[in-house]
Amino acid sequence: MPKFMDVHHGMHGITDEALRAAHQADLDIQDDEGVDFQRAWGDPDSGMVWCVSEAPSADAVKRIHERTGHPATEVYPVPVEV
Amino acid sequence: MPKFMDVHHGMHGITDEALRAAHQADLDIQDDEGVDFQRAWGDPDSGMVWCVSEAPSADAVKRIHERTGHPATEVYPVPVEV
User: Fold this and answer.
1) Which of the residues B23, B27, B41 would you substitute to probe the A interface, choosing the one with the greatest number of A C-beta atoms within 10 Å?
2) How far apart are CA B65 and CA B7, in angstroms?
3) What Pfam families does the record point to (chains A, B) (predicted)?
């Protein structure tokens, strides 16, 4: 299944607890779109968050993030990885 | 050790082989700055590449990437992770 990197802006002050809650909200409904959210990293100062997922499409990733209230600013396919 | 997400722009057409070679070049000299590059993902269409590392500082990450010829556009600390 294709892999994606999605990018969120504006999540200033994000905490471990808040990121875990947001990630869990995604996990709770990801099966609806066949998405598998794997990892997420956040920078409280810049408000940036990145998530790596496997999904049928970028739109599937976007729909899950929109439904859980933290829409991704950008979703990129990442077919290349080391 | 702090973790960082660095972002590269302009790497259009990046292949698995090219990303592996770039990553290996970083690994070869990363000890000079105490950096540990862990993973990297690339999107050949947008030319974006992201790397996750552990390092003493963002500047240490930048210096390694500059010396190996693929300077990072941005380096963010990512103290928050799931």
Assistant:
1) B41
2) 11
3) SCO4226-like
Cα separation, A23 vs A40, in Å, equals: 8
Cβ-based contacts of B16 with chain A (< 8 Å):
80-82
The CATH number of whichever domain residue A62 belongs to comes to 3.30.70.3090
B38 touches chain A (CB under 8 A): no
pLDDT per residue as tens digits for the range B72-81:
999 999 999 9
Question: Which tens digits make up the pLDDT trace of A37-72?
Answer: 999 999 999 999 999 999 999 999 999 999 999 999
Nearest to B41 among A19, A42, A80 (CB): A80
User: Rounded to whole angstroms, how far apart are CA atoms A78 and A42?
Assistant: 19
**Does residue B50 sit within a domain?**
yes
Q: What is the ipTM of this complex?
A: 0.93
